[in-house]
Amino acid sequence: MHTRKLTNIAAVALFAALTVPVQIVQAQGNKQTPRYYVFSLGTGPFGGVPEPVGINDLGWISGGDNLVSNTSVHAVLWVGVPMDLGTLGGPNSNISWPNHSNKGEIVGIAETAAQNPLGEAWSCSAFFFGADGYVCNGFTWQDGVMTSLPPFQGGYNSYAAGVNNKGQVVGWAENSVHDPTCNNLPPFSQFLQFEAVIWGPRLNQMTQLPPLAPDPDSAATAINDKGQVVGISGLCSNAVGGASAKHALLWENGIPTDLGNIGGHAWNTPFAINNQGTVVGFANMSGDENAAENIAAFIWTRANKMQEIPPYGTDTNNGALDINEKGQVVGNSFNVNSGISRATLWQDNTLRDLNTLVIQPTSLYLTLAQGINDAGEITGTAIDTTTNEIVGFLAVPVFDGSGNPEVAAKAKVDANPRPLVLTEHMREQLPVFIRMMLGGAETK
Prior knowledge:
The chain is mainly beta and 444 residues long.
């Protein structure tokens, strides 16, 4: 098992962060539409492009930050100051799905120093800057130590996406089967079968979750504290969305249930599940497993099944990327024709441009909301319009000490902020997966 320990300075910073109370908790359960103060997280510890993707109830913000060369990325934890979590020996690491554990555990992906003997691109390449030949493993990080999560016997790669408060980590891992449904053509070469997995809660414990028959491959993306797991199953393909996500799934007691679709049979991807069992993500609006990405956000409940959350206004596409215990959903809405992308909040069956809820003045235009905690605090990516830099942001809901929403109701906001078009230079700095969502990267 490969481990990496942070410096004592990082450990001290982490301890200090634990002493900072989470604010705005009294707002929990308040159903009125909040207004937000927005703070810039800056450009990250490396001077590159940060991508915060999750925030837990401790206020820990997790994600990644490009090195200034924009050729590699490292996993980062923002706890007052940004902390580089390092790698497992290779050049890249990242945290690409929202982390919600409040037990001090963070999970993600990191490259080792070993070269992949099959030359696979593997799933990690979509969250770095493309394939570079290194073996990539999921990791769990706790108390300053990064520990690799193994693949199944005979495999090389693994991927950790989510963790709950019981220490159960979910993701997907290769086995030794050479799967004929894999796409073996560069740049997305894949050879080995992969299956959804739960690591833990005991050390070295691995439990395989079966795909929906007759699908050969599967992947788990999130788990709640009740042990309900969501993810995908489909063909091996290139191990990145598409035909790999023919079916959106919910596993309960190891048994998969098809969550349905909104008209398409590819890219059906749950991103998050709360403890009420509500699932959010994105799905293709039409087409078979060979269809190009044409996504819309969805929400699934046991009572209402999968329902589309339509894009904002005249936008063409959108995605739902996280949900909290109050049922607030964050994501983005974008127009592939104009290049406009905006962070969104879905609440009370209404999708709102998050920029319209921000107390002015601010130089930040919020393009992508990726994480929300139970206090309603939101993190994601923004453009600083004074510098045109891509920065991380934290949006904090405004309530007074009693939880009374009158402060928010009287707050001055810009109801019609001018949409910001992402330039080609801005797009080139984003990880491959985000460019794919925005229609700016080749997926075949």
